[in-house]
Amino acid sequence: MRSLITHFVLLASLAANAHGSALCKNHPSSPHWPTESDWQSLNQSTQGALLAGVAPASSCYDGNPLGSDLDCDTVQENWFLSQFHAEQPASIGYSYWANSSCVAPNDYAYDDQKPCQLGGLPQYVLNATDATQVATAMAWANSRDIRVVIKGTGHDLNGRSSGAYALSIWTHHLQRIEFDPHWIRPAFNSTENVAIAQTGNTWGRLLKAASDVNRTVVSGQDGTVGLGGFIGGGGHGPLSSLYGLSADQILQATIVTTDGSILVANDEQNQDLLWAIRGGGPGSYGLVIEYVMRTFPLPSNVVVGNLSLSTQENGTQEASWDGLTTLMRALPDLTDSGLTGFGIGTVSQSKSSNTSAVGRQVDVSMLFYLFNSTTAEWTSLLSPLQQQMAAFSNNQSVQVTLSEPDILPQYLDLFDVLNPTASSCGDISLSSSRLLGRRELNDISHDTVKDYHKRLTTAQIEGKTARLVIGLQGGKGPRNVEDNMRGGLTPAWRDAYLHVLVTGSSIETEGTNPRSALQAAADWTNAHKETVWAEWAPDSGSYINEANPSNPNFQHDFYGDHYSRLLSIKEKYDPQSILYVQAGVGSQDWDYNLQDGKLCRK
Ligand SMILES: Cc1cc2nc3c(=O)[nH]c(=O)nc-3n(C[C@H](O)[C@H](O)[C@H](O)COP(=O)(O)OP(=O)(O)OC[C@H]3O[C@@H](n4cnc5c(N)ncnc54)[C@H](O)[C@@H]3O)c2cc1C
Questions:
Q1: What is the whole-number distance in angstroms between the Cα of residue 231 and the centre of ligand 1?
Q2: Ligand 1 neighbour 228 (Cβ under 6 A)
Q3: Which architecture does CATH list for 2-173+563-601?
Q4: Where in the chain is CATH 3.30.465.10?
Q5: Are 198 and 175 in contact (CB under 8 A)?
Q6: pLDDT at 486 > cutoff 90
Q7: Does position 1 have pLDDT exceeding 50, yes or no?
Q8: DSSP 8-state class, residue 81
Q9: pLDDT mean over 197-224
Q10: Contact 127, 150 (CB under 8 A)
Q11: 59 CA distance to ligand 1 middle (Å)
């Protein structure tokens, strides 16, 4: 209560300055941009939490124009590590979304003729340590019509945690974690075994803390990802095919909305907001400070092993596509048997041994895991598939191998297997994805499924590698989530077995600016990938966090028939649209110009 009173006093003193043009969010060349002393007043009212936005690579440029306190060698060594950007207040993992305006010399987009500028990074960052501070900052920005971006780790693949001329709220230091095995669920006569975790935690931290009390949570497979963006988009991982997505586990959230209110959303109050933040898109409705989420028993073991399809030199290309298609069509049944996992298909060119024509072939490596089981069960589930896939192999041109599985006694050991190296960032491709179920995989012919795979794995630049990432993250978990736990997450997840992602576009930054390079890659991706998905799976959708943000049908594809309800919730809690994110709910009315940094109504 005390924090709310303090907060309203602050609101009254700050509201005096309501400005902003009807067309564009406030920016430094507009007459109402806050003065230095106005920014200082925000700093004072947040106990000195305001930082200037700094590009860490500034030290690699003459005179260190933006005042980085890291030396250039350190920046270069760490530039492609996600964790590095997570620890910097303003930096993000995929810098082309910040206009690549001050990148390290080893970045793809580095140009020694270009100066270091802040570009698409925020000018000011609130280093948040409590909800009241966040509420003060949010209301301050709202009353001045200044864009707000939220950064947890900066991992976002679509640049949604940065923005020029925005006030960024960095949640990294909101790291409290508690557990309550008997949490009383409001409006229900029941108790739940929960984790109560603030948004600045990573899944790695939360998994470890949960494991210490003999429980676990539905997380992603990479420990460096943060809670906020992951849950806001849905969040899939090793346990999602069993229990549903991470967003399906949220029982309550504490949320700061754009007017500076600190709201608790659960089954008894602010139910619309709870519904929206359960997978209805991150960074759009308010800043979630804390989640109350279901925990689950730790699996007693994990059985893990590999199935791979490898083509030999001059391999028969067709056999590899037949093997892949056979695998894809088997995955729904295997998921129903309890298997989960993920894999990668790598497409390359070779000469056909039959005709000598140059064509494309695919090599596949799948990691399958099974919980609370035995190596014998794992092998008996996968051996028939191995034989079916190998049946297409002519003259040993394609090899299908099933490894001896290992038994991991601790669930956390799985994450070491999944992440043998530190997680990287900055790779330069725009991906495109789709959620696929039995309708797309089993109810149509083998040859039709094969043909879609071939069409979806072309590369923009001939000869470059395209990849297919196959995730077994759907099935009975998402399908069986109780109605009262479901939120804004696209309904496409409920029928899906697989989340399939394809790469192949090239973001060619040389000789052009990032905005044009991204646009060219997006145009190619829309023409060569989205159109194929739309033909193959018109009634399904895409997982918003790992999808092409320039998809022109994003309302349908990312939100399904939840879009209009989400839009009305967005308009209720963020009527001024200060929380803009690309392909977010309501974003169709706005244009963010990466080059001049302005965010204006269309
Ligand atoms: C290495 C790596 C591995 C990944 N693995 C998986 C995986 O296994 N499963 C999976 O589902 N996804 C995975 N992803 C994708 C991941 O879900 C997204 O990148 C997600 O946006 C990351 O969320 P974040 O909070 O860490 O990132 P950030 O970049 O900090 O934030 C992402 C978005 O969330 C918003 N946001 C962050 N915190 C809050 C908050 N508290 N309240 C409201 N909005 C907030 C931001 O505004 C931004 O729009 C992975 C990504 C990477 C880079």
A1: 8
A2: yes
A3: 2-Layer Sandwich (3.30)
A4: 177-297
A5: yes
A6: yes
A7: no
A8: B
A9: 98
A10: no
A11: 28
